[in-house]
Write a structure and sequence with these properties.
InterPro entries: Thymidate_synth/dCMP_Mease, Thymidate_synth/dCMP_Mease_dom, Thymidate_synth/dCMP_Mease_sf, Thymidylate_synthase, Thymidylate_synthase_AS
Number of strands: 10
Family: Belongs to the thymidylate synthase family. Bacterial-type ThyA subfamily.
Pfam families: Thymidylat_synt
EC number: 2.1.1.45
CATH topology of the largest domain: Thymidylate Synthase, Chain A
Organism: Ornithinibacillus xuwenensis
Helix content: 25-40%
Structural class: alpha+beta
Radius of gyration: 20 Å
């Protein structure tokens, strides 16, 4: 029990002990190592961390957003998912149409200035309301550009054709399981300038053996405290869904990282988490009446036996 979660906690300890202190794009600062791999046996249980609560509903709704090929945060907000808000909000406050209070460097200012944090939250609520209620505003400021969903479902070629990578990889797994080309890439160099955030989880590959489906993710940039627990659960869920559709059992999720880092303002939270004991992993149940991953909705997932330690809050670096 907990071998995968122990590997995660070992990574946290490795970074705190051996990581290099580095500046970063967000001006927050990180402790970082380069090149790390963790393995999760999905037959042991669903790898949702137990040393802190990870909100499965947010993981699942974000994954469904990717699967739908959507790039606008309206769907996420409709499902009470706020994890991409800051990047879309940044587009609005940097536009000529924004007339509100100065929001420069809001990601860092909200951590040290309670009064500014109140103003920020007011502006964020205005922004979210506009996304949900104003179609024109949502189209202009809710869209994050050619991020994950676009690349997974509608990769545009130089011949102006469109490739549905996700659909093709499912067909490949079903009809040519021994192929070494079960790959989906989110890293499209031509589209990087149009993305709110270039993809951190850049490429994933599937592998079929002994009637089991395994998945390996390469993640160029890994926010170990906030992002990685989501990434583990998201790709584990994706593996379950595709195994379900193709009539396979689940095998392993292999998580390979480039720059694995802990932000300098997450250190105490990480230490708190490392002091906690690992608990029994939950079990994932899928709606057996749904076969195609493109038909699944949030109500088609059930997580049984999830009894984690409490949530540990930390600021997100934008």
């Amino acid at each position: 029990m907990g071998r995968g979660e122990k590997a995660y906690l070992d990574l946290c300890n490795h970074i705190l002990t051996n990581g290099t202190k580095r500046d970063d794009r967000t001006d927050t600062g990180t402790y970082s190592v380069f090149g790390h791999q963790m393995r999760f046996n999905l037959e042991d249980g669903f790898p949702l961390l137990t040393t802190k609560r990870v909100p499965f509903r947010l993981v699942a709704s974000e994954l469904l957003w990717f699967i739908k090929g959507d790039t606008n945060i309206r769907y996420l907000l409709e499902n009470n998912n706020n994890i991409w808000n800051e990047w879309a909000f940044k587009n609005w406050i940097e536009s000529d149409e924004y007339k509100g209070p100065n929001m420069d460097d809001f990601g860092n200012r909200i951590q040290v200035d309670p009064e500014f944090n109140k103003i920020y939250e007011e502006q964020m609520e205005i922004f979210k309301k506009n996304i949900l209620e104003d179609d024109v505003f949502a189209e202009k400021y809710g869209d994050l550009g050619s991020v994950y969903g676009k690349q997974w479902r509608a990769w545009k070629t130089s011949q102006n054709e469109v490739i549905d990578q996700l659909k093709e990889v499912i067909d490949s797994i079903r009809h040519n399981p021994n192929s070494r080309r079960h790959i989906v890439s989110a890293w499209n160099p031509e589209d990087i300038p149009t993305m709110a955030l270039p993809p951190c989880h850049t490429l994933f590959q599937f592998y079929v053996a002994d009637g089991k489906l395994s998945c390996q993710l390469y993640q160029r940039s890994a926010d170990v405290f906030l992002g990685v627990p989501f990434n583990i659960a998201s790709y584990a869920l994706l593996t379950h869904l595709i195994a379900h559709e193709t009539g396979l059992k689940v095998g392993e999720f292999v998580h390979t990282m480039g720059d694995a880092h802990i932000y300098s303002n997450h250190i105490e939270q990480v230490k708190t988490q490392m002091e906690r004991d690992i608990r029994q992993l939950p079990q994932l149940l899928l709606n057996e009446n749904k076969r195609s991953i493109f038909d699944f909705e949030l109500t088609d997932f059930e997580l049984k036996g999830y009894d984690p330690h409490p949530t540990i809050k930390a600021p997100i670096a934008v």
